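Appendix B: complex inputs.
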Amino acid sequence: MRRVFRALPAVALLALLIGVWELYVDLKGADFSLTLPAPHQVASSLYNDRSLLWSNFLVTAKEVLLGILVAAAGGLGLAIAIHFSRTLRRAIYPLLVASQAVPVPIIAPVLAFWLGFGILPKLVVVALVSFFSIVVTTLAGLAAVDPDLIKLMRTFDATRLRTFRHVELPAALPGVFTGTRIAVAVAVIGAVFAEQSGGSSSGTPGLGFQILLSINQLLSARGVAAVVMLSVFAIALFGLITLAERLAVPWAYQSRGDRS
Amino acid sequence: MIEAPIKEPRDLDGPDGVRVEVVSRQFGDVNALAGMSLRARPEEVVAVVGPSGCGKTTLLELICGLQQPDGGSIDAAPAALMPQRDLLLPWSSAIDNAGLALRARGVSRSAARAAAAPWLERFGLAGFEHARPAALSGGMRQRVSFLRTLLAGKPVLALDEPFAALDAITRAEMQGWLAHVLELEPRTVVLVTHDVEEAVVLADRVVVMSPRPGRAVAEIEVELPRPRRRTDQSLVALRERALEALGVTQ
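Resulting structure:
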């Protein structure tokens, strides 16, 4: 019951926003609804185009999920490498930041040239836009390890590797999850752009590609319906990662309430 | 009472003591220690008391080999540090925290647990083996932290204000507990504290340090039988002497 009450403000705000939106489009007239469809048009598209939207959603969801997994593994690995080597930190960090400034429409056609029109180039784009936040938060976790703990391990004659395994790696894991949560939103956007600028050879090119098609065919309600699905997916993914975090690194939650 | 001693009994004249000779240590412009000397014989408990910032923690890190002195010499048997804060790993259970020193040497998880389990029971932590530090009380955490230091198997224990963070009642309990444990499992102990009463209750000898730059200004032998009572007249008198050496006048 309490959960229902807690969700009430969010539901009320959403209802209000949809109401204002509906009223605004109705007042603007039918021509305007080609630019911005009314909520009821989006809702009917969600129902009427459900099989088309769903099959394309599955394609995009797969790109996002696999891309994030690759980004999490790669981000953790890269953060560890940077943590261990000062030279690597100096060499890679600037490139890492620079990589985030490269627009997807530039890189996607190149990736399509190399990797074809399948899922692989999209997955690479998603991983590319996602892994930066993961590297940064993981590095922060590694750097936040209490230096006295490292000293303690030295009095226990621990090797560098054992100190890493028993002290630093577990301390870095919450950072991986935080970075992955931040990455969720950009990962979805990355997948959309990758589909739109990378092209596809399949009949189900993904929701991002469908958005582009819908706009070109003046089916704007279908385009917005696709966006709604992607938004709900992002929220679900965020929740899923939070849940996984609670299961995998429960101490990070326990100590938060305990800290004085 | 102790079925599984984790070290062999030693010759009292053996090399398991600590000898610090006129050591100095600077950090930039700050002189942390200047002409500090200290000796701990094997299995002797030496308490070091001094005002805040007199270089007590630096002294322990020098003994543990975590720092090198700028002058003087240090000759100490291998030492394990018990830091001021418990520094338990928040993701590990009590038993895994206790066995961390073994894991650090490459002992397997199951072997480290097997070594730690009987000690947890002896330390009154039975039933809490798999509790994470967040679920333990302050006194329990310090006991796990001490056990972790003990299981490192080093002849010297360097204890850095081990009970400073505890409330007065728990602290008094823990002091009695530590005295008992050291009776069963004697080690060379260098105990740093700012609590003069703690020093005279626990130590064979109390070394009083000056304000920074720290050096030894007085040495008080505590030749009282154990267990000691804080209200004992001779103990109170020794406490007064130590306070006087610190420059505290009533």
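The radius of gyration of chain A is 22 Å.
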